[in-house]
Amino acid sequence: MACKNPKSLSLLCLCVIFFSVSACKTIPKAPDVFLPSARHAPLDTGATLYLFADVKEARSIIELLPIEELKNRQTAQLLDRTDFVAAALFPDESGRRLQLAAWGNYPSSQAGLVFSFDRNWQSRRSSSSQSYWYSPPGRLSVAMTSKQAFMLSLLIDTPTEPFAAAPGIEIPEGYADFRQSAPLSCWMENPGSIISGMMSQAGVPFSFNVQKLFVNIFILEDNQYEAVFRLRFENNSFARGFAALLGMASGFIQDNNLAKLFLANPPVQRGTDVDIKTASLSGEEMSLLLQMISLY
């Protein structure tokens, strides 16, 4: 329906221009972490898990992730416009839950208008004068330009900017090469507890200190999935010992799910790293794996 009031139309146009231009000026440009040369990701330190995904390729995997914020309608609409996303999951004691940095094509001016007329959202500025929107009921911070979006889900009632403190989290050595061609990939900081828990559940003693865990998720035919783990140890000797222990574990592991994860293919040692490729996994089995990784 045509607008009958030229002054109202002019005011609306000015609002759209204002929100679009001001957002572009006040939101920091994040590094393109989907490039192999990226050394940092625009996510804060202190998370237990860092995740990267080509959204269009990995959408079916993303839908299996046990992350409530990815299930709501607003986030689904955001993902529809997203090409690549980087995410961080934090421990409860941090007061944070989920941080997102996304790259795509977004209606930043429309979002600004929606936020400005919704009493559940407040316009805020960070200590470095960066603009963002904060929802007290949702404990959610959001900022958006036409090409980038940032989101932070909180467990506390304190408004917090969604941007990472510069320069962001350092991407581990070798991770960029590892995750190439994987629709979805993640790394875990200090994953010893999850590995120890899995091995203890299988009845296999485990005391090696795993420094980092990389995981690639691939989509196979017929709604099947496959994961590749890379466990990083302090030195070659520890990596060799773990590979040998895993090779002997076939006589102990009776749990079919754990066998599919660890014993379907022989472990491959690469210096201080040990690579393990799972068997073909159903959607339900992949969902359980992602739950173990995300909620440890």
Structure summary, number of beta strands = 14
**Strands ordered across the widest β-sheet:** 5-6-7-8-4-3-2-10-11-12-14-13
- The arrangement of helices and strands along the chain is HEEHHEEHEEEEEHEHEEHHEEH
Sheet having the most strands = 12 strands, antiparallel
How large a portion of the residues is in β-strands, by DSSP E?
25-35%
| Anisotropy-based shape | elongated
What is the CA-atom radius of gyration, in angstroms?
Answer: 22 Å
Category by helix and strand content? alpha+beta
Total of helices: 9
Overall mean pLDDT score?
84
Unreliable runs, pLDDT <50, ≥5 residues?
Answer: 1-25
Approximate helicity band? 25-40%
Description:
The chain contains nine helices and 14 strands. Helices cover 31% and strands 27% of the residues. The chain has a twelve-stranded antiparallel beta sheet. A two-stranded antiparallel ribbon has the order 1-9. With 296 residues, the protein is α+β, with helices and mostly antiparallel strands.
What labels would you give this structure?
296 residues, alpha+beta, 12-stranded antiparallel sheet, two-stranded antiparallel ribbon, 31% helix, disordered N terminus
